[in-house]
Specification:
By secondary structure, the protein is of the alpha+beta class. It contains five helices and five strands. Helices cover 35% and strands 11% of the residues. GO terms for molecular function: 2 iron, 2 sulfur cluster binding; metal ion binding; oxidoreductase activity, acting on the aldehyde or oxo group of donors.
């Protein structure tokens, strides 16, 4: 059994009880994905599986045989940081940085969900073809990722700059 992690094929351990989080951190030496609560409540362990965000502490590695996983280590390229990583730096979207990997991956997954038209609890028109990423939408969609330091304003600004700048500017003008 293999999983593709950040573009590389990796063997899944024989023990079916190994979580995806523990596979990443303990077996593959990818410490960017953080173990926060280990109960699926904080979002520190968020990764992308085939482009969709999941909390890896609640996922068994064997469930993801043949799938593609992206961790924070897989965001940057030879050309430099991912645009969202740069925006986090520019907008002080982190303080201690512990939640940052999960925040980054959750935001990327969230942007994909919005682009596909998946509504949130605050989406005004659930029948619309797409979702406008307002500050309210971003805050609601990112609410599963906790930040102990309270860097939420910087996080929302970084996400808005990367994925929703036109919508946010229209919201300010209104």
């Amino acid at each position: 059994m293999t999983i593709t992690i950040n573009g590389r094929s990796c063997e899944v351990p024989g023990d079916p009880r190994v979580s995806l989080l523990d596979l990443l951190r303990d077996h593959l030496g990818l410490p960017g994905t953080k173990k926060g609560c280990n109960q699926g409540a904080c979002g520190a362990c968020t990764v992308l599986v085939d482009g969709e965000r999941i909390v890896s502490c609640l996922a068994l590695a064997v469930q993801y045989d043949g799938r593609s996983v992206t961790t924070v280590e897989g965001l940057a390229s030879e050309a430099g940081l991912h645009p969202l990583q740069r925006a986090f730096v520019e907008h002080d979207g982190f303080q201690c940085g512990y939640c940052t990997p999960g925040q980054l991956l959750s935001a990327i997954g969230m942007a994909g969900e919005a682009a596909r038209g998946l509504p949130s609890a605050v989406t005004a028109d659930v029948a619309a073809d797409g979702v406008t990423l307002t500050r309210e939408e971003i805050a609601e969609r990112m609410s599963g990722n906790l930040c102990r330091c309270g860097a939420y304003n910087g996080i929302v600004e970084a996400v808005a700059e990367t994925f929703a700048r036109n919508e946010i500017e229209a919201e300010k003008a209104a």
